[in-house]
Amino acid sequence: MHQTDFEIPGFSDDLREAIQHKLDNKAKPVGSLGRLEFLAKQVALIQNSLTPQLNNPVMLTVAADHGITAEGVSPCPVEITWQQVHNFLSGGGGIGLLSRVYGMDLHVVDAGVNYDFQAHPKLIDAKVAKGSRNFLQEPAMSDEECMQAFNNGRSIVASFHEKGSNIIGFGEMGIGNTTPASALMSIICKLPVSDCVGPGAGLDNEGVLNKCRVIEQAIEKHGISSSVLQNLARFGGFEIATIAGGMFEAATRRMVILVDGFITTAGLLVAQELNRKVLDYCVFAHVSDEQGHQKMLAYMQANPLLSFGLRLGEGTGAALAYPMIKGAVAVLSEMTSFEEAQVINTSHIRFEEKGELQSS
Ligand SMILES: Cc1cc2ncn([C@H]3O[C@H](COP(=O)(O)O)[C@@H](O)[C@H]3O)c2cc1C
Ligand SMILES: O=C(O)c1cccnc1
């Protein structure tokens, strides 16, 4: 499989200085809006603008089924995947609710669910197959299917961008999908499988041990390729491949990417292997309670905004982060400067740098 050849734009150093200057001239002590200022800088650099704006925020929740569930790696019945798709489309579930509460336009993508859905205005049909194969027996996807899912993600994101969206959150729904996410994490982060596996939707200790064994045996069977896309085909899933492609495309188009939990971040792990610059476009919404997530984030030197004990996925954490980014952008674009507020300028008084805050 050949690597994708699309470039991701870099950031302007001149603009970086101008943003800092503008933030320091807001009517407040220098740096006093903390991470909100780092977020503002990041979005301004992404948009290459001193007056960033968020337009048409989209939440993309990508769903698929997984053949690996035949090995008892999830405590939940697989029918929940399609049932949750219906639920989200009627405004229910965690992400149906939170995307509405925070004003994000939710679209559900069928990347590979084992179910025939009726057409729905919020459902995007990008089904490659009715679920991936059991990767303990055979590769989860053929190389072609994997690339199809990756490219579907790219074209879906491209079409939202063309309709005016410049910020996109990614979430997922797929019973069994913490298993492919853990396998990809172990391979990409070069960590023992046991460091990457957790209870997912609620496995007990014995279940977690079985999940570890299944992944270890599968890696032993197929081996690890030097191509990340080939590993994605062997051990991944349709939603993870679609998310990886979608995130990649979003970065090429200078969109802000909201990263959710463990499975979504596994999609990003794949994308950043293709081009690390994708990380500059990511806001890491939260650290999930699934044990591997913290290590995935550490691997990418990512600094998540929230630690809320979430372990649901669907995009729920990404939705929570959206209003914070909205606030950050407003600080840079709309907050009064010393001059406008007619307040004595204190920007010469600089707080001692502690270097504790990082943008991501
Ligand atoms: C009712 C329900 C709703 C969910 N929403 C997200 N997930 C989450 O749990 C699944 C992954 O966990 P595992 O790999 O252990 O199956 C994914 O669908 C993920 O989105 C759910 C799980 C359930 C049961
Ligand atoms: O972190 C997540 O997104 C997650 C964790 C467990 C199960 N489903 C999702």
TrEMBL record:
In Pfam terms, one family for this protein is DBI_PRT
**Record function comment:** Catalyzes the synthesis of alpha-ribazole-5'-phosphate from nicotinate mononucleotide (NAMN) and 5,6-dimethylbenzimidazole (DMB).
Protein name, as recorded: Nicotinate-nucleotide--dimethylbenzimidazole phosphoribosyltransferase
**Listed NCBIfam families:** cobT_DBIPRT, PRK00105.1
What's the encoding gene here?
cobT
Q: Which family does it belong to?
A: Belongs to the CobT family.
Location of the active site = 314 (proton acceptor)
Molecular function (GO) terms for this protein are:
nicotinate-nucleotide-dimethylbenzimidazole phosphoribosyltransferase activity
Chemical reaction(s) catalysed: 5,6-dimethylbenzimidazole + nicotinate beta-D-ribonucleotide = alpha-ribazole 5'-phosphate + nicotinate + H(+)
Check the record and name the CDD domains matching this protein.
Answer: DMB-PRT_CobT
Give the enzyme's EC designation.
2.4.2.21
Keyword list (alphabetical) reads: Cobalamin biosynthesis, Glycosyltransferase, Transferase
Enzyme class (EC, first level) = transferase
Q: Which domain of life is it from?
A: Bacteria
Biological process terms in GO annotation: cobalamin biosynthetic process
| Listed pathway(s) | Nucleoside biosynthesis; alpha-ribazole biosynthesis; alpha-ribazole from 5,6-dimethylbenzimidazole: step 1/2
